[in-house]
Amino acid sequence: MTRLAEAKGAVELLLAEAYARRDHVALVSFRGEEAELLLPPTRSLVQTKRRLAALPGGGGTPMAAGLKTALEVAIQAKGRGMTPTVALLTDGRANIALDGTPNRALAAEDAQKMATAIRFNGFPSMVIDMGNRPERSLKALADTLGGPYIPLPRADSNRLSSAVSAALDA
Length: 170
Prior knowledge:
There is one protein chain. The protein has a single domain (3-169), classed as Rossmann fold (3-Layer(aba) Sandwich). It contains 6 helices and 5 strands, in the order αββααβαβαβα. It has helices at 3-20, 45-53, 63-79, 104-120, 136-145, 157-169; strands spanning 25-31, 34-42, 86-90, 125-129, 149-151. The strands form 2 sheets. A 3-stranded parallel β-sheet has the order 3-4-5, with helices on both faces. It has a two-stranded antiparallel sheet with strand order 1-2. Helix 4 (104-120) links the parallel strand 3 and strand 4 (125-129).
């Protein structure tokens, strides 16, 4: 099973748990050169699963753009009385800067700036590393966010779901 398929399976388990708790879930995708809000905060399990199933993989990793979009969604959700948590699920390092250029150094710097902004706004966060080997830059990003770094190189859906649930309960 591909890493993206494993990640989708884990997210589906988390969605089912969120649905049982009557939590809202938003879905932000970041690939190519930009991030996109695929689904604003919702309690619809069916709608969220549908959007998740259609999510393609591959391409660049505009992580800072994804974090920026997540921050914007979290701020809006907080304004509506919700208590957002940001969970970043990735298998690689940032390589697309906020301005859309393929520049690893600038992309990493931009991602750190967005992580700082998320932490400054007080949103609990976590980084789930689905890469083949633990990535130091993702551990550093988790440290900046003030949340746990969860390396799961051989994760199956149940392990990932358990790790995220434990981090949310901590």
